[in-house]
Amino acid sequence: MKLKQIELKNFRNYEQIQLDFHPQLNIFLGQNAQGKTNILEAIHFLALTRSHRTSHDKELIRWNEQEMKVSGIVEKAHTTVPLEVQLTAKGRIAKANHLKENRLADYIGQLKILMFAPENLELVKGAPAVRRRFLDMEVGQIHAVYLYDAMRYNRALKERNAYLKFDKDKIDKAFLSVLDEQLTEHGNKIIQERAAFVAKLEQHARNIHQQLTHGLEDLRISYASHVKTDFAKELSARHDHDIFRHQTSVGPHRDDLQFFINDINVADFGSQGQQRTVALSVKLAEIDLIFEETGEYPILLLDDVMSELDNSRQLDLIETSLGKTQTFLTTTTLDHLKNLPENLNIFNVENGKIKEAEKKSY
């Protein structure tokens, strides 16, 4: 899978721009706040119809404009797929092969991506919501039906929580049990998909982590489900508690991931270096896991992460990705990038203007 071309119209600080990409490595070079990350964000938006930086769509639209569009051409093994995502006054419109997709699950997965950014450290040490978003995004790219179940679960959860805000004397527990059934129908599927994904992710990440640490550290990843036995029974048992608290206290919306090195919780007791290595191991593991599950390697987006890694980890990241994935990398300097291939594209970015560097300047 390769992203051959992308075109932006009124996206962030870009009025209109079209870029053609190298099938292996593309580097966006420039100082901070010039628009490098916006290109990677646009690729992320094209793939998932969402930004990885903001949940407010209006922030993606260029100043004083009302609409924006990101389009691209994806090359797969036996076909070429035009993709397009628009934000308009009528909402979000996603098209694949020029046809509008009415369901998100039908669109997601056309362009598979893997984002690695400084905020990925939050995967290890951040709030549980960060790790749940990680699970939803990655599992959703592999299994489209997961997105449908997640959407239906969130809708049922919103309805149940709204009902729990009623005065307790007005709450009918029989009706609450009906809401429980809607929640468990999709919640159980989410839990099963997440648990299966984490088990496979751990296998790949464990091997990679041992290589990165020369066999000194053993990585274990645990899916900490808030549902311990039977989701339906646990919901029923917590009716009085939930009515008192006005919210649903058990379910996959409260689940988490835990990372252990030599049986020690990395978030609580690991060094920053260990947290970085765990994050890197997980991201490298995803490359092969996505290929194993879908038969396609994802596109790798590296947003200003090379300066966060020492030379050996930079090399691990580049060597693992090259030859497998098409890679997009942002950086303020090439000085810390070692062993780059000769065949690549470098784009100079300055004040929202992008110019491909001449070959002799590589």
From TrEMBL:
Domain RecF/RecN/SMC N-terminal residue range list: 3-354
Key word Nucleotide-binding present: yes
GO cellular component terms, semicolon-separated: cytoplasm
Recorded superkingdom: Bacteria
Single annotated GO MF: single-stranded DNA binding
Binding-site list for ATP: 30-37
Database matches in CDD domains: ABC_RecF
A UniProt-annotated Pfam family: SMC_N
Main location per the UniProt record: cytoplasm
Keywords: ATP-binding, Cytoplasm, DNA damage, DNA repair, DNA replication, DNA-binding, Nucleotide-binding, SOS response
Signal sequence interval, chain numbering: none
Gene Ontology annotations of biological process type: DNA replication; DNA synthesis involved in DNA repair; double-strand break repair; SOS response
Localisation: Cytoplasm
Functional summary from the UniProt entry: The RecF protein is involved in DNA metabolism; it is required for DNA replication and normal SOS inducibility. RecF binds preferentially to single-stranded, linear DNA. It also seems to bind ATP.
Similarity annotation: Belongs to the RecF family.
Protein name listed in UniProt: DNA replication and repair protein RecF
Species of the source: Lactococcus taiwanensis
